Amino acid sequence: MKEIEGRDYILIPERDLGVHEECGIIGIYSPEKKPLAREIYFGLFALQHRGQESAGIACSYNANKIAYYKNMGLVSEVFHDEEIALLPETKTAIGHVRYAAGGTSNVINAQPVVFFGRYGRMAVAHNGNVINAREIRNEMIKKGHIFQSSRDVEVIASLMNDVGEDNMEDGIYEACKKLKGAFSMVILAANKLIAIRDPRGFRPLVMGEKDGSIVFASESCALDALDAKLVRDVKAGEVITIEPDGTMHSKMLPGAGRKPCIFELVYLARSDSTIDEVSVYDSRYECGKMLAKLYKIDADIVSGVPDSAVVAGRGYSVASGIPYVDALSKNRYVGRTFIQPSQSQRESSVKIKLNAFKSNIRGKRLILIDDSIVRGTTSKKIISLLRASGATEVHMVVASPIVKYPCYFGVDMDTRDQLIGGYRNADEICKIIGADSLHYVPLDCLVKACGGIDYCTGCFNEDYSVDVSDICDEKGILSRACCDIEFECEE
Fold first, then answer.
1. Catalytic residue list
2. Residue 340: its pLDDT value, please?
3. Is this prediction's pTM over 0.85?
4. Which end of the chain is least crowded, N or C, by CB within 10 Å?
């Protein structure tokens, strides 16, 4: 960590800045051929917060051809006019942005994955984490399949090719029945667009419409970027196929029962999105109001850690009557460098700068709202920065319960040892991060603020949407390594 004299700002490694969701996906069907790659490009911009290491676009054209381009970097770094122009006009296209929670970070793991199998050329983009990928991969290897990457999506593609018969849709359906965990996907094949959401609906997937075109995306903010109208969420366990003539039909996977990830609303999703008919903004705002009613703290100002806690901070301010001020500013224009020869060098070069507004906080007792405390490193550094910038007191209030347990479904919280709350209570965490006081929202209040539906809350209380006991070791750690070589299953 680099500190500048006077402590006006602090540089925090990207890895330390909260947690990360692994991917964002988008797929578009158009009734006529058009340059869909550019529309996918704009949709990926809106989903950039879901993945910032690589980006890719695949376009289906003719009966059995797919053109694609993918590379490391932000969407704006990967795609320029030249790359967009090389992708043909088409009726169907998909796109992907990726964040790697572990394992290798290189272009071979970028998506969409394009392959040729018994159904011809296909492209798949995936968001989530298939927790039985290692088991499936080992079965495929015994049958003679080979793998080039550490992606769950390659395992999925291999399985689709293995279990199917003559009908492509049946092959995809049968493959999805064997998958366990989180998988929202968009697939290109034979000029068809297929969208799939796993039986619990862990990761969001919405459907929109614009001038006869159908759009699937991880979040509704991508639809807004394209001026598309939100039609509905893809149901948990739903497989939707758009035929070349625009005919749409859907089929449900067995055992479907919605229990999505609540952390999407806490942290991962953009505030202007709607997920499972719940406004992300409204849920965060309501949670902030609840916190103000629960914890009446004598302070001068309240502020939220940018970006996802700002809304909760404003809700707290309104309910408490304590004025809201900006205490921290995040530099939104910090680029990422991917040309270093090693992953450790890449990680050290990816920095996020946080600025403290000294004039706003000097001599003030501050209530700082954050969406969550996962590893604690960021909270400790931010509190230290605020004190050095003149805050006389820093009371932290968190818009989620203590994160105690790992996430196995696409968020990079793999082991309990990584979590500051894994084996500590609020008082112990408060001492470590250096706050004057620390308060968390109760889980029942959070669920109520998020619409009261049945959520996966496993990272708070081990109530996961699916049973993970059979794929964890004796310490409760998910074995992510796919085989004997040194790479891991991701997405």
1. 23
2. 36
3. yes
4. N
